[in-house]
């Protein structure tokens, strides 16, 4: 196992909220751009956030990396997905071949894709040795959470610290904008379980069709999650307990990546349902890390809206997407790039020699 550089508790202690004074300075600058005030809408909010995170009026997000975390789930044996478990491993090969959705959309955003084996139930040594993926394998898939905890508490911490560690490595290599992604057949089941455990919302309300299950399978999925919660009784006050009992290795890795992004003061674009389950865990571990998050899109997976509400985040896109892999994050990076260019490149009224008008910000 690779040495972990930063312990979870030290990372949590080191996460600072984004500086309000920098927010104010950025907003003042944005309000002076030669446009009707506020007319670039939410791009200005993102620009303000980027400037405050980077403590600069010229924030750069040129170097973008989407981290796609892969892991398998013992609960798949309960029949909660349309797909067999093997598809997780097969999709990792597809990522490496460049033929997946994330490859296409990361290409469009100019982002690098880093694939991490967090706990795939298969041998990926060959790809690791060839340097095509990273390995932070915690185990060969989680246990079936209807029979006991999905993983031990120690494994949950290991998954979180792996994510923090990867964020650190990427930032040291120059990454300026991180994105989260997931691959793991069955992983909408633990994601709904994490949301239900942390929010107290009824399981039925937060459980959706994942890859496209039928009504009968959806009913079973709800019962499976209810059983997992009843058997394990995760403590909503203890997010690491929730991750251990009803989470997944890639979900822990994603939560860790987000905590790491906040620790290293880099913005992180959060993808869809599974990634946002990770984000919710990260928030419960270190509330300030929300300042560093940008919600990419609203997934079609029904419960996603509740996760975004719990985080207080408004997604950038709403395109009926429900793939995961980091696809929504990659696409949203194009918008974040636009926001960065607005604050970096545009001139103020004074600089451009444009007469100031009397417009004011308004909402309809
Ligand atoms: C070919 C294929 C590629 C995928 N890429 C992402 N997912 C997405 O679907 C899975 C979650 O849905 P469920 O909980 O219903 O299994 C995850 O792997 C997620 O990343 C895929 C699913 C499939 C089948
Ligand atoms: O929103 C997602 O990320 C998602 C939804 C369904 C299936 N896989 C991923």
TrEMBL record:
The active site is at residue 325. It catalyses: 5,6-dimethylbenzimidazole + nicotinate beta-D-ribonucleotide = alpha-ribazole 5'-phosphate + nicotinate + H(+). It holds the Pfam family DBI_PRT. Transmembrane segments: none annotated. SUPFAM superfamilies: Nicotinate mononucleotide:5,6-dimethylbenzimidazole phosphoribosyltransferase (CobT). Pathway: Nucleoside biosynthesis; alpha-ribazole biosynthesis; alpha-ribazole from 5,6-dimethylbenzimidazole: step 1/2. GO terms for molecular function: nicotinate-nucleotide-dimethylbenzimidazole phosphoribosyltransferase activity. Keywords: Cobalamin biosynthesis, Glycosyltransferase, Transferase. It comes from the Bacteria. It is an enzyme of class 2 (transferase). GO terms for biological process: cobalamin biosynthetic process. InterPro entries: Nict_dMeBzImd_PRibTrfase, Nict_dMeBzImd_PRibTrfase_bact, Nict_dMeBzImd_PRibTrfase_N, Nict_dMeBzImd_PRibTrfase_sf. Its EC number is 2.4.2.21. CDD domains: DMB-PRT_CobT. Catalyzes the synthesis of alpha-ribazole-5'-phosphate from nicotinate mononucleotide (NAMN) and 5,6-dimethylbenzimidazole (DMB). Belongs to the CobT family. This is Nicotinate-nucleotide--dimethylbenzimidazole phosphoribosyltransferase. It comes from Thermacetogenium phaeum (strain ATCC BAA-254 / DSM 26808 / PB). The gene is cobT1.
């Amino acid at each position: 196992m690779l040495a972990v550089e930063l312990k979870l508790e030290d990372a949590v202690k080191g996460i600072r909220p984004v500086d309000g004074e920098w927010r104010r300075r950025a907003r003042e600058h944005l309000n002076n751009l030669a446009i009707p005030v506020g007319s670039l809408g939410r791009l200005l909010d993102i620009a303000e956030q980027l400037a405050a995170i980077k403590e600069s009026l010229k924030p750069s997000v040129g170097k973008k990396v989407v981290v796609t975390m892969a892991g398998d789930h013992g609960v798949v044996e309960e029949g909660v997905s349309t797909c067999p478990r093997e598809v997780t491993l097969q999709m990792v090969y597809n990522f490496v071949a460049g033929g997946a959705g994330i490859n296409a959309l990361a290409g469009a955003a100019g982002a690098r894709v880093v694939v991490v084996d967090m706990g795939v139930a298969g041998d990926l040594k060959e790809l690791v040795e060839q340097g095509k993926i990273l390995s932070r394998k915690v185990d060969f898939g989680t246990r079936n959470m209807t029979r006991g905890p999905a993983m031990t508490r120690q494994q949950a911490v290991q998954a979180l610290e792996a994510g923090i560690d990867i964020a650190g490595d990427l930032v040291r290599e120059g990454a300026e904008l991180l994105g989260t992604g997931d691959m793991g057949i069955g992983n909408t089941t633990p994601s709904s379980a994490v949301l239900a455990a942390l929010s107290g919302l009824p399981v039925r309300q937060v459980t959706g069709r994942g890859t496209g299950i039928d009504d009968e399978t959806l009913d079973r999925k709800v019962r499976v999650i209810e059983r997992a919660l009843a058997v394990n009784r995760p403590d909503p006050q203890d997010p690491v307990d929730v991750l251990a009992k009803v989470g997944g290795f890639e979900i822990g890795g994603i939560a860790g990546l987000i905590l790491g992004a906040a620790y290293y003061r880099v913005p992180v674009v959060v993808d869809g349902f599974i990634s946002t389950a990770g984000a919710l865990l990260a928030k419960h571990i270190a509330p300030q890390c929300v300042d560093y998050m940008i919600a990419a899109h609203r997934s079609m997976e029904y419960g996603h809206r509740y996760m975004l509400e719990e985080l207080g985040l408004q997604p950038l896109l709403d395109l009926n997407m429900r793939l995961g892999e980091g696809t929504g994050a990659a696409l949203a990076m194009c918008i974040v790039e636009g926001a960065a260019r607005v604050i970096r490149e545009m001139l103020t009224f004074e600089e451009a020699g444009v007469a100031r008008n009397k417009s004011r910000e308004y909402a309809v």
